Amino acid sequence: MNERYRQEVGRIQASDTFKQQLKDAMSRQKRGSFRFPYLKAALCTALGLLLLCAITLSVPGFFEAPLPMLKIDRQEIVSSHNLGTVGTLGNNAEELAHNVPYMPQEGDVLPVYENPWSEESPYLSESDDAELLPLLETFAKRFLLDEYQIAHLHEQLSTGMLNSNIYLQADIGRLILSSRDSAYLLLSDPQAYDLSGDSQAEVIAKTEQFLKEYPLVDPDEAYIDVSLTAHTPNANRWQIRISRQQDDPKETLIEQQLNAFQLTLDPQGHLASISCIAVDTAQPLGEYPLKSRQEALQELYDGTCSPSSPAIAKDAQIAYTEVVYGRYLSDAYDMPYYKFYVLQKMGESSSYIPYYVIAVDEEWIQMEE
């Protein structure tokens, strides 16, 4: 077409200068027509790559490392610093419900945390003061202890105690390590605080008053959970957890389970001791998907739970289910568990017993013999 154009221009009656200008203009147009498609293709490719990057970056966890497998040793001896329910719960299912901050739904995810102390000896009495004193002093700040004396339970190291030999003596009581990430304050005057009550509401009201006198947590930010630990003919014994409420209910659950104060009462309802667990939740191993309640129930019936006995019949009455954190089947992780309250025969009577089943989906669990 361009050659024909040149011929037609040659027939035009015009000056040679004008003809040459027309030919030059056509040549420039031809060169531009070859360059433009390449430029357009390059621009489209660049825009496509930018769009792909934007989509990729918007996908949660696209560049995250794959979740590590959780290795559970069936023969492992599990330490017992869990803040779990103990005692005889009785057979009244209505007494088991309490102020659970969050109940995960099917398909939900929860973080798992590695226990950095799992390879250490659980017998703290074998460790020297240089290792344990900094841990005690960290807990002293949590318990608001400004003045205290350093003391020892025994003059020499013992090989048979889970508790630390070294402790801090303050006016309010004695602060002792129960593990490297938990401690308890044994009160000097067990009659100082009466937290007894016939109902959860009554105990919560007394706990709110207690926090005004001893603000372990800011009373305006406190999340108080009261649950039954023992039912007796004369009185109910309660477990009281105090933690800091978060904006996200899931974060409140994690705070309540892994960074809480637990108040232990004597049989008369007076405050005997305060425990504190302080797990570092800044760097989880990852967010793990949870198995369904039905899958957990099957493991419960199969005996893959803690405790593994007494065995649970298929028609056993299960009154209540919640999700808690602990180290019930493995000391290596702070991980979520389903907690089932199962009615079991105990001599001539029956009582609900708590059982714990790992809540993380089986895809991420590696059982080792």
Walkthrough of the structure:
It is a single chain. With 369 residues, this protein is an alpha+beta fold. Helices cover 27% and strands 28% of the residues. Mean pLDDT is 83; it is low at 76-87.
The percent range for strand residues is 25-35%
What is the arithmetic mean of pLDDT?
A: 83
Q: Identify low-pLDDT runs.
A: 76-87
Distance from N terminus to C terminus (CA atoms, Å) equals: 83 Å
The tally of strands reads: 15
Structural class: alpha+beta
Reconstruct the topology from this structure:
Blueprint: H1 2-11, H2 16-58, E1 70-73, E2 109-114, H3 129-142, E3 149-152, E4 166-169, E5 173-179, E6 182-187, H4 200-213, E7 222-231, E8 236-244, H5 249-258, E9 261-265, E10 271-277, E11 286-289, H6 293-302, E12 318-326, E13 333-346, E14 349-358, E15 365-368
Parallel strand pairs: 1-15
Antiparallel strand pairs: 2-11, 2-13, 3-4, 4-5, 5-6, 6-10, 7-8, 8-9, 9-10, 12-13, 13-14
Which key phrases capture this entry?
single chain, 28% strand, globular, alpha+beta, 369 residues, eight-stranded antiparallel β-sheet, five-stranded antiparallel β-sheet
Could you write a compact summary of the structure shown?
This protein is of the alpha+beta class and 369 residues long. It has six helices and 15 strands.
